[in-house]
């Protein structure tokens, strides 16, 4: 097939001296040499037994997959992602509903509030939670003054503190796709549902939630992929006692300098994140088909 | 029945309202709290802060005290500028070449160019470190620029392709049937129409580069320190209060940038669509 036919554009009188698709070649070359080649090399390095990268073998894979500790770390990492996704849905979805009902002026303010944290460095957002959750932080000061607790709670370096922080840090990633899908919903559908006697709860679960499924799934994907690999938040708020895959990769590659083992762990991270992500997007496509079918 | 329904509606408003308020509180309050604490008079970052002073900002802007931070800021800006520049060039070319192309290979290439968005950044960061080291490159800003270009170019491709797909093909055809050359059509018709899309993407790419952790974590060294990595160091060991001042500056910068982008290209509208 010739490139001209492939593009399917009407033949121009004076065309570019090269076919249109060739404009993508520079980026394709860049991706081949500094994206695909490193990833291929990563796979290669993982199949070496020693940290000098001289003896090929599957020793590192056997070592990692034979250790029960590895499975605990994988499970903890995936669970952290799932908990964060649930938390962002529980408080993010209602905010999207409020956005849907708001006046255009209020919508502008809300979208500003939602997008603004996205432009703020993840490190700043993580730091903010140290100030909020620390021993002398906002939460402890407030609870102490109200007399609810008698001594400061330990919130930093706990999974609870980490999930709370990640909920705020990843929230825009849930809200933007949700709002984008929800604002395209036909408002008549909701009116029809309530005119036919459905309560607002019923309308929510029978009409709005199924129709906003593509946005919800997209949000879950982004939040899951981002929170499971949030190295800075995990190390700073979770501390070194809560071990997730990103910390393990960092320790093995830049502290212990065992590159083959680090390669094994990072490929495990890649595979586990991509598995969950593709399962979710498969579910998303199925639910989309169910709604429109 | 009427009463039950109103009770249901009341509970709906109550539950949804409470949760949404909680969401807004969680989104906004940490930012406000950090801004407030950055003006503290004390030596620690407790809340509510004691007194008001600009001491941490003074320490931050002092050239001799905070040389490392300043260098990290310059490095981050330089890397973001170059990687976004290359991203605009290669990314918009690729979008122009592929956005209307239905061929299977074009779809595969498009998927490849967007894949850094879903691939865990740490995996690519580690792969890039091994690759560059094993083929004999020494750590430098150039390598970080290359890495950042790969992970930020998807933002440019996404917004540019969206602009191209909204472009009426008839405009192109009529320009060319009136005798304009490909280059003239590109310069006078296509580029002016898709420019807002390219700018919005470039803005997102620039911010993503400034904020990038996974690639910088592996590719930067003490000599090529990057701002997020330096800030991580300031939080990791003993909490350095200057980080509150850095955060304050970054919050102000993000706020200003957001207003500017809203006025010029309507950023929030673009992100919603």
What does this entry look like structurally?
The complex is a heterodimer of chains A (293) and B (273). Chain A is mainly α and 293 residues long. Chain A has a single domain (57-292), classed as MetI-like fold (Orthogonal Bundle), CATH 1.10.3720. Chain A contains 14 helices and no strands. Chain A has helices at residues 3-7, 25-46, 59-65, 68-101, 104-115, 122-133, 138-145, 159-182, 187-195, 200-211, 213-228, 231-238, 245-255, 259-292. Chain B is mainly alpha-helical. Chain B has a domain at 75-240: MetI-like fold, CATH 1.10.3720. Chain B has helices at 2-37, 55-61, 67-98, 104-114, 121-134, 141-166, 169-177, 182-211, 214-219, 227-236, 242-265, 267-272. In chain B, helix 7 packs antiparallel against helix 8. The radius of gyration of chain B is 24 Å and the shape is globular. The mean pLDDT of chain B is 87. Classes of the chains: A mainly alpha (293), B mainly alpha (273). At the A-B interface, helix 2, helix 4, helix 5, helix 6 and helix 8 of A face helix 1, helix 3, helix 4, helix 5 and helix 6 of B.
What would a concise description of this structure say?
The complex is a heterodimer of chains A (293) and B (273). With 293 residues, chain A is mainly alpha-helical.
Q: What is the highest CATH level, the class of one domain in chain B?
A: Mainly Alpha
Q: How far apart, in Å, are the first and last alpha carbons of chain B?
A: 41 Å
CATH superfamily of chain A: MetI-like
Describe the global form of chain B.
globular
Q: What order do the helices and strands of chain B follow?
A: HHHHHHHHHHHH
- As an assembly, this protein is heterodimer
CATH class of chain A: Mainly Alpha
Q: What fraction strand of chain B?
A: under 5%
Query: Which value, in Å, is the CA radius of gyration of chain B?
Result: 24 Å
The name of the CATH architecture of one domain in chain B is Orthogonal Bundle
| CATH topology (fold) name of one domain in chain B | MetI-like fold
The overall average pLDDT of chain B, rounded, is: 87
Query: Mind telling me which CATH architecture of chain A this is?
Result: Orthogonal Bundle
CATH superfamily of one domain in chain B: MetI-like
Low-confidence stretches of chain A: 1-8, 10-14, 289-293
The poorly predicted ranges of chain B are none
């Amino acid at each position: 097939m010739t490139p001209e036919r492939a593009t399917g554009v009407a033949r121009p009188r004076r065309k570019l001296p090269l076919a249109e698709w060739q404009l993508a070649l520079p980026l394709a070359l860049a991706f081949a040499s500094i994206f695909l080649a490193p990833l291929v090399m990563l796979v290669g390095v993982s199949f070496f037994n020693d940290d000098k990268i001289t003896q090929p073998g599957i020793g590192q894979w056997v070592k990692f997959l034979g250790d029960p500790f590895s499975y605990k770390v994988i499970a903890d990492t995936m669970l952290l992602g799932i908990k964060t996704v649930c938390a962002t849905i529980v408080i993010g979805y209602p905010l999207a509903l409020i956005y849907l009902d708001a006046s255009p002026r209020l919508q502008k303010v809300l979208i500003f509030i939602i997008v603004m944290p996205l432009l703020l460095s993840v490190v700043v957002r993580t730091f903010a939670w140290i100030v909020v959750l620390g021993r002398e932080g906002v939460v402890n000061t407030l609870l102490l003054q109200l007399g609810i607790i008698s001594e400061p709670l330990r919130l930093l370096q706990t999974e609870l503190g980490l999930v709370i922080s990640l909920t705020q840090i990843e929230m825009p990633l849930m809200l933007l796709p949700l709002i984008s899908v929800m604002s395209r919903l036909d408002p008549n559908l909701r009116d029809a549902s309530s005119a036919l006697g459905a309560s607002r709860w019923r309308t929510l679960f029978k009409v709005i939630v199924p129709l906003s499924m593509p946005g919800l799934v997209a949000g879950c994907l982004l939040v899951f992929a981002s929170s499971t690999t949030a190295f800075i938040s995990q190390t700073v708020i979770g501390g070194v006692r809560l071990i997730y895959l990103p910390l393990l990769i960092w320790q093995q590659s830049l502290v212990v300098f065992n590159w083959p083992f680090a390669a094994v762990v990072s490929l495990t991270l890649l595979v586990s994140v991509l598995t969950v992500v593709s399962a979710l997007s498969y579910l998303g496509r199925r639910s989309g088909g169910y709604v429109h079918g | 029945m009427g009463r039950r329904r109103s009770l249901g509606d009341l509970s709906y408003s109550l539950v949804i309202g409470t949760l949404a308020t909680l969401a807004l509180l969680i989104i906004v309050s940490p930012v406000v709290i950090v801004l407030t604490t950055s003006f503290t008079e004390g030596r620690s970052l407790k809340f509510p802060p004691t007194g008001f002073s600009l001491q941490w900002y003074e320490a931050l802007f002092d050239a001799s005290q905070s040389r490392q931070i300043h260098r990290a800021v310059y490095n981050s800006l330089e890397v973001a500028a170059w990687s976004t520049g290359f991203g605009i060039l290669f990314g918009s070319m690729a979008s122009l070449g592929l956005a209307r192309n239905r061929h299977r290979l074009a779809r595969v290439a498009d998927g490849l160019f967007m894949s850094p968005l879903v691939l865990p950044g740490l995996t690519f960061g580690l792969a890039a470190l091994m690759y560059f080291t094993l083929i004999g490159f020494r750590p430098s800003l150039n390598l970080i620029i290359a890495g950042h270009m790969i992970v930020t170019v998807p933002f440019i491709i996404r917004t540019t392709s969206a602009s191209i797909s909204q472009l009426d093909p008839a405009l192109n055809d009529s320009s060319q049937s009136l005798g304009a050359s490909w280059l003239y059509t590109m310069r006078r018709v296509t580029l002016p129409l898709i420019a807002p899309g390219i700018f919005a993407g470039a803005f997102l790419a620039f911010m993503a580069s400034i904020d990038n952790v996974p690639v910088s974590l592996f590719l930067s060294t003490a000599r090529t320190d990057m701002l997020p990595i330096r800030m991580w160091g300031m939080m990791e060991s003993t909490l350095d209060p200057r980080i509150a001042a850095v955060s304050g500056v970054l919050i102000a910068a993000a706020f200003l940038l957001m207003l500017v982008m809203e006025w010029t290209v309507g950023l929030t509208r673009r992100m919603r669509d």
